[in-house]
Amino acid sequence: MKVEGVAGVEQFASPGKGRGLRASRAFGVGELLLSCPAYSYVLSVKERGLICEQCFSRKTGLARCGKCKKAFYCNVNCQKKNWSMHKLECQAMCAFGQHWCPSETVRLVARIIARLRDQRERSPSENLLLLRDMEDHLEDLDNEKRQMIEAHIASLHQFYSKHLDFPEHQALLTLFSQVHCNGFTVEDEELSNLGLAIFPDIALLNHSCSPNVIVTYRGINAEVRAVQSISAGQEIFTSYIDLLYPCEDRMERLRDMYYFNCDCKVCTTRSTDMEKMSVRKLRDEIGEKEIRDMVRYARNAMEDFRRAKHEKSPAALLEMCELSIDKMSSVFEDSNVYILHMMYQAMGICLFTENYDGAVRYGEKLLQPFTVLYPEYSLNVASVYLKMARLYVAVGRKSAGITAFQKALAVMEIVHGKDHTYVTELKQEMAVK
Ligand SMILES: C[S@@+](CC[C@H](N)C(=O)[O-])C[C@H]1O[C@@H](n2cnc3c(N)ncnc32)[C@H](O)[C@@H]1O
Ligand SMILES: [Zn+2]
Ligand SMILES: [Zn+2]
Ligand SMILES: [Zn+2]
Predict the structure, then answer these.
(1) Which atom of ligand 1 is nearest to the CA of 19?
(2) I need a surface site. Which of 4, 150, 205, 345 has the fewest CB within 10 A?
(3) Where is the MYND-type domain positioned along the sequence (predicted)?
């Protein structure tokens, strides 16, 4: 079957990977292969008031729901369109007050159930794949994952029973499991999380650590653009994960979240690992064991930081970053990905606390290694350039700001498309500076 609107993409059986998508004609870098409206989606609570709940437009002066005063819209039109979803939460949010706390996944699944209940025909998000046919990996769930899903189901019953009739338990298990391995986090141009969404057609894309497409978002539509030239017959691959990390870390994440071993060229040859794990060149060579121990330390430090992020103060978090960077520096180069990871976190904390000089200092250490360690067109690279551009302007370094804006723009024009609002807004921002 061909996708309506964008010809040139078809579903096929990808050996060892289940179903996949392949190109039936050639595509050049920057070309749009596929777009898909969200089947269901939910805006993050932290974005309320900044982004319209219905169309995901980012603007000032959004109008809020008079009842709950928690949902914000462009206008009455968006509010009306959103009511079939918002009504699942509007009254419940008032009734539960501060005890209303379903996770984003639970909120998304509630919306999917409501949509499935009302759906009479194939939706425009399902030209190639029906939501109900998405991979579920039910048989791969271990006890920990099952328990997590059971907790989600309990939360669904707790917060949504008034407005929803639930399918039977097994169907709920399947749905949550499908959302875990097919859901998309919608992100803005700085890679801030805006919400969660399901795009069944785009969920057909398999993963590679050297992807030939990138998925970006335009309101509540997902778009797929080529970042390598693609010839007719070639499989289309996106990346499911952050590509900064070495093979073993990527494998662990892919196995844990998506239940497969990646056999892409970068993984089979481990061609980029040495560069990613760069070790200091001292007069006395650093031994294998010392390196292994430091890698273990680094992984633990990243995990400790991830857990602490929601609990500790920014000052305590920054100290955690600094201590681990200091320790790792005895063995690793500044361009080692574990050091870069901690510097990226430190930059985020400095941004949060409006310590712009600190953020610039960390950001400057990321830019050069990021351009080498990530693929040529990368949202991670573009977003750091963009953050840096805005920071440079904020600290009065105008010409450095313009250069960084230009670097971000060069990637964004390819991955988001030249007519994307992020691109046009960025050009306006540059013109003002
Ligand atoms: C979002 S789905 C992609 C479409 C999927 N192949 C299908 O048939 O529905 C994600 C799942 O596809 C499979 N998959 C994706 N990339 C893969 C790869 N590089 N190698 C093997 N399996 C892969 C895994 O089972 C993964 O959990
Ligand atoms: Zn709107
Ligand atoms: Zn409301
Ligand atoms: Zn790989």
Answers:
(1) 8
(2) 4
(3) 52-90
pLDDT band at 433 (very low <50, low <70, confident <90, very high): low
Per the structure, the count of domains in the chain is 2
Nearest-ligand number for the alpha carbon of 18 = 1
Q: Tell whether 211 and 158 lie within a shared domain.
A: no
Long-range residue pairs from 180-188, CB within 8 A, at least 24 positions apart, any chain: 180/105, 180/137, 180/145, 180/257, 181/135, 181/136, 181/137, 181/257, 181/258, 181/259, 182/134, 182/135, 183/105, 183/108, 184/215, 184/222, 186/41, 186/56, 186/217, 186/220, 187/217, 187/379, 188/58, 188/422
Asked whether residue 229 falls in the same domain as residue 179, the answer is: no
pTM of the model: 0.96
Same domain, 27 and 69: no
Residues with CB under 5 A from ligand 2 (ion): 52, 54-55, 57, 74, 78
Distance 259 CA to ligand 1 centre (A): 8
Pocket of ligand 1 contains residue 266 by CB under 6 Å:
no
Same domain as 227, residue 172? no
191 and 219 co-located in one domain:
no
- Domain limits for position 232: 1-38+199-240
Are residues 132 and 190 both part of a single domain? yes
